[in-house]
Here is the input.
Amino acid sequence: MTRAISGEELAAGLEQRIPGSIIGTSKESILVNNQSLLSLAAHLKTEPGLEFDFLSSITAVDYYDYFEVIYQLTSLEHNHSIVLKVRCHDRENPAIPSLVGLWRGAELQEQEIFDLMGIRFEGHPNMKRIVLWEGFQGHPQRRDFLSW
Amino acid sequence: MVMKTEPLVLNIGPAHPSTHGVFRMRATLDGEVIIDVEPIFGYLHRGIEKLAEERTYQQFIPLTDRLDYVSAMGNNMAYCMAVEKLAAIPVPERAEYIRVIMAELQRIASHLIAVGSFLNDCGAFMTPILYMVREREKIVDLFEMVSGQRLTYNYMRFGGLSQDVPDEFLPALRKFIDQMPRYLDEYDQLLKENEILLARTKGVGILSKETAINCSMTGPMLRGSGVPWDLRKADPYSVYSRFEFDIPCGARGDSYDRYRVRVEEMRQSVRIIRQAMEQLPVGPVRSKTPVMLIRPPAGEVYSHVESPKGELGFYLVSDGSIAPYRCHIRGPSFINLTALREMIVGWKVADAIVIFGSIDIVMGEVDR
Amino acid sequence: MDLVPTRRFVYSDADLDQHEGEVIEALKARSQQPIPDQDQWLSEKAPEAGILLTSVDKVIDWARSNALWSVVCFPACCAFEFISTAASRFDISRFGMEIIRASPRQADLMITAGTLTWKMAPNVRRIYDQMAEPKYVIAMGACGISGGIFQSSYGVVPGYSRIVPVDVYVPGCPPRPEALLYGIRMLQDKISKAKVFRK
Amino acid sequence: MKLDYYGLGIAKGLMVTLKHLFRRPVTVQYPEQTLNTSRRIRGNELVWNEEKCTGCSTCAKACHIGAISIVTAPNPEGDKYPVEKYEIDTGYCIMCGMCVEVCPFEALYMGAGYEKAQYRRGDLVQSKEVMKYTSEKYVSGYFYPEFAAQLPLQTLLLEKITEEE
Amino acid sequence: MVTFDLVFPAWQFKGLPPDWPGGFWWHFIVFSIIILAFVLTLVIMFIWFERRTLGRMQARMGPNRVGPFGLLQAMADAIKVMLKEDIVPNGADKLVHLLAPLVAFVPVLMVFAVMPFQDGAALVNLNIGVLYVMAVSSISTLGIFMAGWGSNNKYTLISAMRDVASVVSYEIPVVLSLAGIVLLAGSLSLNDIVRSQAQSVPFVLLQPLGFIVFFLGGMAEINRSPFDLLEADSEIVAGFHTEYSGMKFALFYLAEYAEALVLSTLVATFFLGGWGGPLLPPWLWLIVKSWAVFFVLVWIRATVPRVRIDQLMTFSWKFLFPLALLNLVVTAVEVVAWPEALPVLLIPVNIAVGAVLVILLSRNFKPGGSQVEA
Here is the structure.
């Protein structure tokens, strides 16, 4: 059984290593500061005992006030998981650091989020539309996009 | 003497016989060797995630059928499990068992198509895929018996199943799982040791363990590279913890290993179905849930199952209304294409097709 | 002898993508209305023709209706019902249709098995244009007829009839193999009624 | 092509295809022979029971593509609204069976017919006269076990092959 | 064909050219018609036969609606294809595009000029028949290359390149394997080869290695599966005839099966005793034997996957070529050392030598081709 690590428990340890990185926690997730996402993710990936080597899924949700990007991390070795969340308050030109350098599995998913949600991932090697064609107006996965 | 050569840009797809739908690769060739490849997606982007927001929870079930249309039952199950987790709906025991039987049958059907079309991509003229489709027809018959449709079943509901299986289902299923291993043996005899197939697939398209994990590969791709990671064992959902089965793994991570992993998984699925049939309890198949509208409490949930292609995850956000606020689908086929470039570059065009076939994608899930 | 690879393309990848987008938008703007079904002659009374022409007509129609080679255009779900139809159990080869040409030049029949998106639409139109006359289209399944379940989506063409003229509509999602075979038989009927030498 | 097995692997495969040459094909010769479909078949038509229908439009609400269009009289007659127009566009319908499942008055059934191909798009719309339930109509047992029991058993490919061997 | 013996009894063709009025030209015209009829009828029958057999091997029926047992299916296809629109793609080299099907098809027909249908009954009984067959049959490669080049399509170009590569490399083992036959028969004339088989045993027993090399090499030259790289529809769409439609495509389609017919009849002539055989009339024997060879072709097509281009080349140069050379040496030694040896003695010796050589070579045979560092 994959053990879902409690957010509070993990946050306590992380706060000491990378101060100021955690904004909030919940039972299964931690909410991470935008600026320290990269260092925190690198820490999660390499720290013995954690070793989240597998990024299963990336999602973005549009909450009107902010975008939330959700990373589902799993460790194949220890069989435990954690959910990382990042928020982005800029609606016009949202941007978040890319995690492609750490997990290549993020490549296509980040590209898809850019296409459908319009969040730019900084540092991504190929940040362009993936499923829709060039010249498509708007980002359909946003809540304020009307399909017809 | 210096000879100027110019690479040839070749568009493979989107309407190409072996791109499994409408996938497109923009390949740059040096002679026959591929020196660069760029996958292009989106030719089947139907906006399923957006459509989910416009529909009620119930109405989204038929759409999941069309996600990975080779394994509709698996998608049904994954989605229903996600909603059940979100709204805390209990599922009766019998329904769980029937779900497992359906999911495993669907895994066999999906792998049959995967293996058949993979062998077809290797150039065996139609024969393997026709044999495999014949086996699949038997499974489709069973599905038709329970749900009334041949491809888009729309069979599972929140809190169980739409209807109980008919009386004639279990004897037919018994007959099927008695026959199936024999046919699998026959198909192994057809091509398992074929020298040409070995030459075409052994050592071709090697995906190392580290790359596979780093690229978030799941399913037979990951297991073919030798990582024994199967959600049915690692994170047992439904009633999978009650069954005994092995996780077949490849050694080198080449196309042949992936092909063998799929064949072995079919045998394991038959094993699971046999156990599930023995343990199948009687009782209701659907807990008390509204037929039309449910309103799960506000919250979010990520639920994943081991679909035939890999980890199929549903990320649902509810705001307490009758429709999901956000529904994200983690399609295994889509993410399994991440390492396409590494696997294909340096091989010939013919190999590229074989490697691509061994990934086993379904465009409905790639583009969604 | 040294081989010096030169990477010099007339268009960059970005240019190609840009161009593709323009083509799609142009096609989308052009095809907001479905192409009407061209079947008025089906109900018309056949004009009298000489006995020679009639028998030539018969032979040609017989050949055309019995040798329908379909082109590879299987975007989505219905493809698997088409495969089932082509496979051993329902066996399309009885009608001589098991030759599925990958090249549109040699095909007569386009079975539109699956949802058509605007991104794919120019390609489908191109396949249709590349097919040699006479050519026929069977709209298979709800998505092929009207966009079906995805018709309200932002990326989906509501029916192939926006892009190509359709001869036979086969409802279902997807249609059973028998239903598709029935549609094919209907198309064969339609072809065998056609007059090659019409005034 | 390392000849690991000196061509014996190919020979084995050849034997399999040769064996199939002498087996009976599994083909159903469709227009002459037809399969018994599933008892729960969701064919390409709906069957509508005029007596039982109250005009509540639950089916149209459950349909997520709006394939069902129903118009009732503004005023009820007794405990039901007379249905003036009841149409289903099979060009839209995906035969998901949701309408049948939700019908509170058991007035809507899946039909069993699947040979519904048409030359014209307009002909795909089934009007209420076509859909009307009569006792001789071949109705599917989808969500109606009492209908299912009357239908013949499904033809299974499974059994056909076992009989031969 | 049925009335062949009634209208033109065999004695009429003894001695060429015959001495009856009109002399050579009558003979020429009659045989041209016979060859055309033979090729076209048999090709159509072969297409039907292949589709039916493939169907049965794939557990289905195959064409059975058009005419009795679907016999007219190929006719319907032919009429339909010929009446289809003829398309020349934009940017194509028009002349090359137009000529390619003819260049591909005519040589295949020309091969039959030296094919003996019974003792001495051929259009011309060339005394360099083998040479002529090999020379003429490779011309159709040019047609395929023209088609690939002239179509202005990348897939056809790749296909054409593959074809040229494969034909150039397979020509050598094929010719070498025939050299053994020529040594045994002592003649290059096809009729003499058949006649010497009729006197002793079919050469397949005396030349098992030569048979294998010729058969496999021939399959590669006519691009039958598993060597059908240039029509690999899962890779390069429809290969060299991707851009062809209508009549021109029909010619290619015809040429493809006519080539299969050529291979079948050549194998029957060189190795299976050609027209020789008891009871049945000689021309029927030829047809029966070629049909049997064609069945094997279909059978193999139904079973095996396709090889890759580098494997195709390796197979020719590292496997078939040494085999053919060794076979030639062994045969030459035998012919010189035991010119009068009975077939009874040579058959087991040759089969044993063949088996040992095949096993030894396949042991040491490594197919090339792995990932190229980009």
